[in-house]
Design a protein that fits this description.
Elements (H helix, E strand, L loop, with lengths): L1 E3 L2 E3 L3 E4 L8 H9 L5 E2 L3 E2 H5 L3 H5 L10 E6 L3 H12 L5 E6 L4 H4 L11 H14 L4 E6 L9 H11 L3 E5 L14 H7 L8 E4 L5 H11 L3 E4 L9 H11 L8 H19 L1 H8 L3 H4 L7 H9 L3 H12 L5
Parallel strand pairs: 3-11, 4-6, 5-6, 6-7, 7-8, 8-9, 9-10, 10-11
Antiparallel strand pairs: 1-2
Helix pairs in contact: 1-11, 4-6, 6-7, 9-10, 11-12, 11-15
Length: about 325
């Protein structure tokens, strides 16, 4: 067991990473059902929140069955981040997470997300202001550093710990790597095993199955693991990882029928939450994962990706379930 503030979590807890247009309430709820111990919202713009932008406000929605659930915020202005943290706290999450890791150019170039890796002093000031402004735990998600020559995660972690964060998640890549190459966990391990660091350290990057999860836990002794892209269209990965950690054996994917039922539920719940047009568009990210390794599936996937009518999509899913696809 370990704690993030007043949140008690099991050893080797599994976290669902915040992902734009992916980790909405319907998907988070499905991931919880399959064993995610902690989930987090899509990252939310601090500027959007203080302007009362509808899209940003909608992302504050959380469901009781998701808990513990965090709200992740990003932004470059300390005042806006502090005010948005107060707004987020009013939505009653279990913790607030600060995004210091998003590598996307349009965010980083404005000094938000991973763009703050070049200004540790500002990171520390922003973090302390947020910690002082709210009464719930504050965590941070970041990267190893800006680029290969500037892997300053040891300094970043110690600085953020001094500023008051309750846990840190480290993605094993630099901002310059984006999502390319392999994640480097050696520095994550050094942070975790540094005697000066006494907050939980969550490792993130390239955890795609139970075997890799066990290797990272055994080798680097992190408190928990955060799963990101590998969970897209694959919410049962949490159950599979837990099964492997317990038994040392891989648990097979659900049957095609089971996967179709989960996908259908995900689609219908998304339609309820965000409307048919947006839900259909954003579900396209998930189809490859839901139906991975089905022989001759490419034409069907193309059809799923092109349809814009809910009834037609449900008809295709029904045919996949009953193996009547053509």
């Amino acid at each position: 067991m370990f704690n993030i503030g007043n949140i008690s979590l099991p050893k080797n807890a599994l976290f669902l990473a915040p992902m734009e247009d992916v980790t909405d309430p319907p998907f988070r709820r499905i991931c919880k059902r399959f064993g995610a111990d902690v989930v987090c919202t899509e990252f939310i713009s601090s500027d959007g929140l203080i302007r009362n932008a509808d899209k940003s406000l909608a992302k504050l929605d959380i469901m009781e069955e998701e808990r513990p659930v965090g709200i992740q915020l990003f932004g470059s202005d300390t005042d806006a981040m502090t005010e948005s943290a107060k707004i987020a706290e009013a939505a009653s999450p279990d913790f607030i997470d600060i995004n210091f890791g998003c590598p996307v150019k349009k965010i980083a170039i404005k000094g938000a997300g991973a763009g703050l890796l070049n200004d540790i002093t500002k990171m520390a000031e922003m973090t302390k202001r947020i910690v002082d402004a709210v009464n719930i735990p504050v965590t941070a998600k970041t990267r190893l550093g800006w680029d290969e020559k500037n892997k300053n995660i040891m300094q970043i972690t110690e600085t953020l710990q001094d500023a008051g964060i309750n846990a840190i998640t480290i993605h094993g890549r630099t901002r310059a790597q984006l999502y390319g190459g392999e994640a480097d966990w050696t520095l994550i391990g050094k942070v975790k095993n540094d005697p000066k660091i006494n907050i939980p350290v969550i490792g993130n990057g390239d955890i795609t199955n139970g075997r890799k999860a066990k290797k990272m836990i055994d080798q680097y002794h992190v408190d928990g693991l955060m799963i990101g892209r590998a969970a897209i269209g694959n919410p049962w990965i949490f159950d599979q990882i837990k099964h492997y950690l317990k038994t040392g054996k891989h648990k097979p994917n659900p049957s095609i029928k089971e996967r179709t039922e989960i996908c259908r539920e995900h689609l219908l719940e998304s339609v309820k939450w965000k409307g048919e047009k947006t839900a259909i568009f954003e579900m396209r990210k998930h189809y490859s994962g839901y139906f991975k390794n089905i022989p001759n599936f490419k034409p069907i996937r193309i059809k799923l990706m092109s349809l814009t009518n809910l009834d037609e999509l449900l008809d295709v899913l029904n045919k996949i379930s009953t193996k009547k696809v053509s």
